[in-house]
Design a protein that fits this description.
Largest sheet: 7 strands, parallel
CATH topology of the largest domain: Rossmann fold
Helix content: 40-55%
CATH superfamily of the largest domain: Glycogen Phosphorylase B
Order of helices and strands: EHHEEHEEHHEHEHEHEHEHEHEHEHHHH
Number of strands: 13
Mean pLDDT: 93
Structural class: alpha/beta
CATH class of the largest domain: Alpha Beta
CATH architecture of the largest domain: 3-Layer(aba) Sandwich
Number of helices: 16
Low-confidence stretches: none
Strand order of the largest sheet: 3-2-1-4-5-6-7
Length: 378
């Protein structure tokens, strides 16, 4: 079986849930003897090491570059892909890594992963929402199978698009504990000398980071705790100004480009991990926190209760004071945090990349045979 993965998600982000998902698919797929895979990335500076994937049945076109993720890198990699793809022949499966199909990649079947409907749910937060939705509509119409990463994501897919439910199946992401590193732990403790609440990842508007800042201030948490931001780039001027207006600037610490090892230590040393996002298709950071023994507080919305179940605390994102109240209660109740950390540690065990890949491989085979996708994803 010849599979082609393209550059799209790797051109638009150096790290993140969607890029980790496609990296892990290929990392585990390469061990299946019947698989021959091409990953056409082009220029990249991804946090994920593509070189470790190369072997006899896996070809990767990738060159390290200092070019930042975004439109320019995407356009260059699209040109590289379309120059190379015709010489790779016709694949059995083309699995785009985002919501467009590269026009010169030829394949017998197309399998798409549907991550979320954040643009559809929050169109006012995106300047290019119409273009994204049009691209999704075209790709979903062409796809032979659509893998949804949660039941929540599948429900939204069927709500916003005219898709045959029979070709939309649910396969959860996997999870591996992040690698620990004593030197990174020393760095975190050196730079953050008080107990802290942790936030991880992108701070796009729907991730609701500003609500966390405001709740942290309203709860009086800064009397005894700092707030640490790991990943997601440098704090913006607006974020710093909001922190200053709340008199939190001295208690806000950022690790803008955090490695997996630093993330692991940040989770392991945190008093509480808070994920205030208004929408997630799956949500890997809560599982990362749980596997590091950190209690988790989440928005009670989208896929988060489905994925994390009874292993997390929840607040109501629709109630203005819910997050501040939960923060105030939890930061003074070590017993509740400890009990939740014990429950939460069991949740990541439900999700494995090998199982995710086994089911995904089953979808590829079912597409080629023309058989039931529901049975293949089971």
């Amino acid at each position: 079986m010849h599979i082609v993965y393209d550059h799209q998600v790797f051109s638009l982000q150096d790290a993140g849930g969607a890029s980790r998902y496609h990296f892990e698919l290929l990392r585990h797929m390469k061990d299946l003897p019947e698989i021959h895979a091409d990953l056409i990335v082009g220029l990249d500076r991804s946090r994920y090491c593509f070189k470790e994937l190369v072997q006899n049945n896996v070809r990767i076109l990738s060159r390290r570059s200092s070019l930042k993720p975004g439109f320019v890198r995407y356009a260059l990699n699209e040109a590289i892909t379309n120059a190379v793809a015709p010489f790779r022949g016709t694949a059995d499966i083309y699995h785009p890594t985002l919501y467009r199909a590269c026009p010169l990649i030829r394949a017998r079947r197309v399998v798409v992963t549907h991550h979320d409907c954040v643009q559809e749910r929050f169109p006012h937060l995106f300047s290019n929402v119409r273009r994204i939705i049009d691209a999704k509509r075209k790709l979903f119409a062409r796809a032979d199978a659509i893998i949804c990463i949660s039941n929540s994501a599948r429900n939204d897919l069927l709500k916003f698009y005219s898709v045959d439910p029979a070709k939309a199946c649910v396969i959860y992401h996997g999870h591996d504990p992040l690698p620990r590193d004593a030197a990174m732990g020393d760095r975190v403790r050196r730079e953050v000398q008080r107990p802290y609440v942790l936030y991880v990842g992108s701070r796009a508007p729907y991730k609701n980071f500003s609500a966390l800042l405001q709740a942290f201030g309203a709860a009086g948490a800064a009397d005894a705790f700092d707030l640490v931001v790991a990943g997601g780039g440098a704090l913006t001027r607006a974020e710093r100004e909001l922190a200053s207006s709340l008199q939190l600037e001295e208690h806000l610490h950022a690790f803008p480009a955090a490695s997996d090892a630093l993330m692991a230590e940040a989770y392991a040393n945190a008093t509480l991990f808070v994920y205030p996002s208004l929408y997630e298709g799956f949500g890997l950071p809560p599982l990362e926190a749980m596997s590091a023994g950190c209690p988790v507080l989440l928005s009670a919305c989208s896929s988060l209760p489905e994925i994390c179940g009874d292993g997390a605390f929840y607040f109501d994102p629709g109630a203005p004071d819910s997050l501040a109240r939960m923060l105030k209660d939890l930061l003074t109740d070590a017993g509740a945090r400890g009990r939740m950390a014990c429950r939460g540690a069991k949740v990541p065990l439900r999700y494995g990349w090998k199982e995710c890949v086994r089911r995904t491989h089953g979808i590829y085979e079912a597409c080629l045979r023309g058989s039931s996708l529901t049975a293949a994803a089971a």
